[in-house]
Every structure is written in C-alpha cells, then in structure tokens.
Amino acid sequence: MAKPQNRYVCQECGAAHPRWQGRCEACGAWNSIVEELPRETSPRGLDAGKGKALAFSRLDGAAPQIPRRVSGIVEFDRVCGGGLVPASAVLVGGDPGIGKSTLLLQVIARLAGEARVAYISGEEAIDQVRMRAARMGLTSAPVELAAATSIRDILTSLDVPEGPEVVVIDSIQTMYVDTLDSAPGTVAQVRAAAQELIRAAKRRGSIVLLVGHVTKEGQIAGPRVLEHMVDTVLYFEGERGHQFRILRAVKNRFGPTDEIGVFEMTDRGLMEIGNPSALFLSERERAVSGSAVFAGMEGTRPMLVEIQALLAPSSLATPRRAVVGWDSARLAMVLAVLEARCGLALIGRDVYLNVAGGLRIAEPAADLAVAAALASSHMDMPVAADTVVFGEIGLSGEVRPVNHMDQRLKEAAKLGFSHAIVPPRPRKGGRARQGAALGVGGMRLTEVGRLHELLALFEGGEAGLADNRDSARRAPSRV
Q1: What are the CA-CA distances from residue 216 to residues 29, 96, 144, 219, 311 (Å)?
Q2: Which pTM was predicted?
Q3: 315 vs 347: CA distance, rounded Å
Q4: Please, are residues 436 and 463 in contact by the beta-carbon 8 Å criterion?
Q5: Does the N-terminal peptide bond of residue 377 adopt cis geometry, omega within 30 degrees of 0?
Q6: Using a CB cutoff of 8 Å and minimum separation of 24, what contacts does 11-14 make?
Q7: What value does the CA radius of gyration of the chain take, rounded to a whole number of Å?
C-alpha cells in the first residue's frame, strides 16, 4: 500500500491543497495553510453487501417526551429553549475574557444538585479553576474537576457506568486526538476531537458543553463544519467598556434562534438581568438632543434601548460615519433617504451613531428611531423623555409597519412611557388616518406614514415630541 502523503489544509475554511501556498484559493485567507498528515484509508471502495441493514421507522411513530435539564439560570435556559436537552452538544463562542468559562462554571454548579457534572479544562490548572469558583462562591457545588487535553483519556474517564451526565470542555481548540499528527487547534484536530466527544454524548445520553475560541472577525475558530456538527451554537457578546453581556443563539435544533439572555459582569460572576430595558435606560440623560428610545424585539422579549446620534461639521473630503451597535450599511441608507426624500443637508457632516449599553441591534424596526435621533441632533431639539419610536423606513421615504407592535407598546407603558411614534396600523376596511390615537396601556400614538412627517413634528413641536419647546432653538435650513 502506498504511503499516505502529507496534505496542506486551510485553518480558516478547511480546504485541502496539494502543496503549501501563502494564500488559500478557496476563502482568500493569508498564511492560514498548515501541513497535516491524513489518516490511512483503504484504497478499495466500500462493499455494500458487507454492511448492516438499517431499521427504518415511520414519522407517525410514538416519540417519548425528553425532559430538559433546567439550570435555574433563567437567561441561559431561555436562550437554550427552556433548558439543556440530553444527548446534545452545545458550542459557546466569544471573545477572550468575555466570560465564557465563568458562565459555564455557574451553569454546571447549578446543575450539580440534580446531575453528575464535570469540568475539564485544557487551558487552566485545577487550582486556577478553584480560585474562580471561590470568588463566585461555588466551592460547595459537587463539580468534578480535571485538567486534560487528550481525547482518548477524556473518553476513557467519561465512558464509565457512573460517569458525568453534563461535561464542560474548555476549550475544544486545546484538545487533540493522538491518531493525528497535526498540532492541537488545527482543522483536523478540532474536527476529530469534536466528533469523538459528540459521538460519546449521543451514545451515553449526556450533555457536552464546548467552549470555542473566535477569530478576529468574531467567528468561531476552526472549520465551519464544527458549527454544523453541534446541536446548539451560542455566542457570548459584549463590549469591554460595559458590564453587560449578551448570550445569543445563532443555531438551536431544540428551540428558537432569535432569543437572547442578558447578564451583568460583577466581581462574583455573571448576574442575570430580569428587566434589561430598565437597565439599559437607567443612565439615560433627559432633554438632550440626538437621543431617542427604541422599542425593539429580541426573540419573544420586548426591549427598550437608547439610540444616540451626533452630527458635527467635517473638515475631511469624505465625512466620517462611525457606528457602534448597528449596521453601518443601514445607517447609510437612512442618511440617503433623509437627504433625498426629506431635504436634510447632511453632506459634509460627520455622523456618529451609538446604541447605548453595548447591545447590538439587527432588526429594521430601528430605522425610525435612528432617523429621529439624527433629526434631533441636526435640529438641536431633544425628543421628549416619555416618547418611544420604532418603524421601518423604505427607500421612497415611507414608514412601514413592524411585527409585535402591541408587545413593544406594553413594555414601554410598563416603564412609564406615555407617547409613541409608530407606523400607521391597518384597520378593518382600509388603513386608518395618520395622526394621534390611543394605544396599548393608554399610550398616545402618533402614526407617521412618511419620513417627512416625523421631521414636521420636530419643526412644529407637535404631539409633545420635543422637550423645552419654548427655549429650543429653531432648526437650521434643510437646503
């Protein structure tokens, strides 16, 4: 049999090349190709007659209800769809130091009261894990600790009659399979290590929680197939300058993929936030131009956040467009609509946009709140402190309805807001006239169908939009 030849594999996309080269032709990454020795395989094809026949079932067969393991951390259980499912694999990714290990240590410490749990670290010594547990007050939890990187040793320790039912592997990039000659963290090692751990979890009915490193682009390091292999992929997000952390599901075979969990980093670990809206608005300054409150939806949870905008004269040939927490391409679209459809003179102005609290917003319903913040900064007229704004903006300047309007308004009314600027809502027999109306919880609604109607509210000080209207300066000319 011919000796297997070395191959060269891209660590970003997993593409194989016959020889080393500086740039991967598949994904375009530079200096990502590493030499690997493939496994020895039989040169002959598989014989179909030598296998074992499969036992097929029907869709209408009885499926037992699998109970979930609830950790008791409400925000974590919400993102997982109500708890952890037995015989599943969960991958948690995030920036270094964001709190992945802290979160999973708290999760298994809660689960230790009703299940056998183990924490296997490939990056820290056992004493270092104990120091973190002591700081968070978790030393009394019956968690089994181990420091190991060999998949063979880990499987031997787990595959016993009284083995743990929930296992944390921190991290998958440090694990290695001794049948491969490549270094830990390479595409082949990460794929093989994850495959062995997932196969063991499915066979034993246990739960494996994998910690994954991320690249500088924010994607989980290693082959993309790793995210396809696991059942659930969670991203732990947050800004270094803020104490808030967001746990977001991007894949979940057993639950929704649009839920988020909100935590606050403290000296005793991560504390879950039951009412994120009140927390995100706690430090909001009133009667300041360039600020608007957006009533958004994160999964099934309504959430209110503050959107801040600042327009300043620019001395550059190309003005700056700095965005934090929102899509920069969508900001460019809103600015173009304001200039082309509403006549706002924004050319030659630097634009800075920020979502307060470190939260990242992805839904188009924030368009109208962004436009209100930009108009408020441009006209130097503050939005009233009791007003929330939401709606999607089209390229022709129309304001389109969004989903879950009643839930957004209920959350705003619960937090003391009494006025909302919203898109026109369809009524029986046609669309209702635009203007003021009463909404959920007695809130006063101002329905705007075109973007220039929002600017008219600023200019006329109508519907209680602007605070201190008597002392506010008149808006500069829009042409």
Answers
A1: 12, 10, 33, 7, 30
A2: 0.76
A3: 12
A4: yes
A5: no
A6: 11/186, 11/187, 11/222, 12/215, 13/223, 13/224, 14/187, 14/191, 14/223, 14/224, 14/225
A7: 27
Each residue's pLDDT expressed in tens, for the chain with a length of 479 residues: 455 567 788 877 778 888 888 898 888 888 888 877 655 444 455 565 677 888 888 888 776 777 899 999 999 999 999 999 999 999 999 888 889 999 999 999 999 989 999 999 999 999 999 999 999 999 999 999 999 999 999 999 998 888 999 999 998 999 999 988 888 888 888 889 999 999 999 999 999 999 998 876 667 766 677 888 999 999 998 776 678 888 999 999 998 888 889 898 888 899 998 888 887 887 777 778 999 999 999 888 899 999 999 999 988 888 999 999 999 999 999 999 999 999 888 888 999 999 987 788 989 999 999 999 999 999 999 999 899 999 999 999 999 999 999 999 999 998 889 999 999 987 655 444 444 555 666 789 999 999 999 999 887 654 345 544 443 333 333 33
Pick the CATH number of 279-464 from 3.40.640.10, 3.40.50.300, 3.30.470.30, 3.30.230.10: 3.30.230.10
For 74-274, the fitting CATH number among 3.40.50.10350, 3.40.630.30, 3.40.50.300, 3.40.350.10 is 3.40.50.300
Where along the chain do its domains lie? 1-38, 74-274, 279-464
